[in-house]
Amino acid sequence: MQPFGVYVHIPFCAKRCDYCAFATWTDRDHLIDEYVAACRTEIRRAACRPATSVFFGGGTPSLLPGYALASILAEIDRVPGAEVTVECNPDTVSPELFAAYAAAGVNRVSLGVQSMVSHVLRSLGRSHDQQNVVRAVRTAADCGIERVNVDLIYGGKGESPSDWRQTVEAVLALDPAPTHVSAYALTIEPGTPLAKDPDRHPDDDDQADKYAVVDDLLAGAGLENYEISNWAVPGDECRHNLLYWQQGDYRGFGCAAHSHAEGRRWWNIRTPERYIRAVRDGAATEAGAEHLDAATRRFEALELALRMRDGVPAAVLPVGELEGFVEVIGDRAVLTRRGRLMANDIALRLDV
Questions:
Q1: Would 40 be classed as within a structural domain?
Q2: What is the pLDDT of residues 291-349, one digit of tens each?
Q3: What residues pair up with 158 in beta bridges, in sequence order?
């Protein structure tokens, strides 16, 4: 069966992180019931084909009551064994919430951990309790949720090499140990509090050193790098993200959600109020769209493939000029660790 994904955007947050540029709001909780109803209506109207993966992102989806998220999921037609993931803040989960998720068909949660060191969390504008991470992982397992992803961010102001090592080692010591870890270099997004504070901007060399640390530690624990910023125990890769990286078709629901079908991309109205109103009035929720021509799609396919462990056809890169950055395996060119750190520059040399 051809993979097909469904993404549901939940725009509510208790606190906005200093580095965040997503479509999220901290003062819209009064809209939750109307928003959930609008998502359910939009999904019913779309009548999509069965999904092989579903992803609730945000924002903080775990701010929704369990029954509310379950009611949205119930509207989504899924194939047997579909991957269903919910992003969670460790501070907003409970045994009751995870039990509701499991009963509804959620089989994967993605915890926004970022760091396991208090002063680093503060520098990122986050406030969660590290012990809540420990409890969340244990509770998910106890409730029968099969897989836990842990998301990390490195390169924040004041994060020492030992702080970062402590974070990764603490994550690997969780019980049960996560089978998937995403580790992202802190990036500066225009308009965020972080962007307006140059003293807190990350250092490229520091981030490169920390990438080597996380790669070594995760590999030593049996997690393989399958995309530049993602490691998993073989078989536990995130199917939904793979669908994005392989240019699959997906449908997004909720405000600001993006969709893709055969080279056409479109996105929904950005603010929750306008989105709710549009659905209620039977108006279009689409705010804009773009059509990708064949050359653009081919370049994007190669650019995305370059980031993954199987790489690209060796013929599309000047591999002789990229010694140390690219390894040729059979007829494929695969980035080395040094190459992963330079992926954007190497992508400019792709021959499409």
A1: yes
A2: 999 999 999 999 999 999 999 999 999 999 999 999 999 999 999 999 999 999 999 99
A3: none
